[in-house]
Amino acid sequence: MASPSSSMIHRLLLALSVVSAAVLVSGHLSPEFYAAKCPNLRNIVRSAMAEAVRQNPRNAAFVLRLFFHDCFVNVLRIAASGCDASILLDGTAAFASEKFANPNNNSAHGFELIDAIKARVEAECPATVSCADVLALSAHDGVASLGGPTWTVQLGRRDSVAAYQAAANREIPAPFNDLSKLISLFRDKGLSPRDMTALSGGHTIGLAQCSNFAAHIYNDCNADPSFVASRRRICSPDGGRNLAPIDSETPFRFDNAYYRGLVARRGLLHSDQELLNGGSQDALVRQYSADGEAFAGDFAAAMVKMGALSPRPGTTGEVRLKCSKLN
Fold it and tell me: What is the pLDDT of residues 61-77, one digit of tens each?
């Protein structure tokens, strides 16, 4: 009998890595959480996201970023906050909205899209599916719609009844962070440097405002001169809101081109290029740049792991009827 090919072995290891990550998920989360209560949930969300991405491919990046920023705000003094849809709240007199925290203000988008998907879910399954789970499913389906990997989306989260603007300012990684700061921020969430480097690959479908990369293209020496020149044509040293793709090779395809850009010293953000700048993640970046399957497997496993960051259990929190407002 012929021995299995290396690609077959890699696909098996990829599948096992996603399963292993799923085992780490808190016990109350399950991919079958709504099987009886809302059996058509996956089809509703998948259809809505496919339509949204056809209309504007950037919608996939918008929703992925919302999910990341939502999960990353994990207020330790409050039991089980994390992937709890707190980022979707408009805010009240009692708490400031995360929408207007520094990492999100004027740059986070997709709120209306999640509200619209939630409305479709409510029409079929009233007061059943949390906004946190709608966001988790939408992020998955957005990535898949642009050719990215799939993973088992664990479900059963509850929605927060508050938002945490100060925590968002403190805990979400910034585009000017260096490698040590990035590693520290991710480790604070129980995510390894490998998880961090894989999750950073989500930037392959993102755009960034000039204000977030001006300092990099005018002050950093670790950048390709021709790339710097091209970006300076749309971005002054003072910044601004002009946009550029983080992955200039395939900006609307979820693939490993982001890492090829880093190897070529064409990282748009300082924090991106820090992943390959003579540090601990250089070898992994080079591996991902050459092996798209390795990146896809690690990204999928890291998404499962991040999606399990202290989700609200049981009857804690609520199931919001509209994602931007408390019930």
Answer: 999 999 999 999 875 54
- Residue 69: active-site member: yes
What is each CA distance from 85 to 113, 136, 180, in whole angstroms?
Answer: 14, 9, 28
**Residue extent(s) of CATH 1.10.520.10 domains in the chain:** 9-172
pLDDT in tens, 209-232: 999 999 999 999 999 999 999 999
Annotation-wise, does 98 bind a ligand?
yes
CATH ID of 195-295, from 3.30.1130.10, 3.30.70.260, 1.10.10.10, 1.10.420.10 = 1.10.420.10
Instruction: Please list, in sequence order, all residues whose beta carbon lies within 8 angstroms of the beta carbon of residue 14, skipping any fewer than 6 positions away.
Output: 293, 296, 297, 300
Q: 292-307 and 58-72 are packed helices; what angle lies between their axes, rounded to 10 degrees?
A: 50
| Best CA proximity match to 246, nearest among 202, 204, 296 | 204
Task: List all residues 6 or more positions away from 169 whose beta carbon is below 8 Å from its beta carbon.
Answer: 101, 102, 103
Q: 75 labelled as ligand-binding?
A: no
Q: Is 180 annotated as a binding residue?
A: no
Residues 164 and 97: their CA atoms lie apart, in Å, by: 7
Q: Find out whether 250 is annotated in a ligand binding site.
A: yes
The CATH 1.10.420.10 portion of the chain extends over: 195-295
- Are the CB atoms for 227 and 265 separated by under 8 Å? yes
Predicted TM-score of the model (pTM)? 0.90
Q: One of 69, 140, 216, 270 is an active-site residue; which one? A: 69
**Residue 86 assigned to a binding site:** yes
Could you say which architecture CATH assigns to the domain 9-172? Orthogonal Bundle (1.10)
233 in helix, strand or coil?
coil
Which tokens in the block code for residue 28? 């109350």
Nearest to 10, CA basis, from 205, 293, 270, 261 = 293
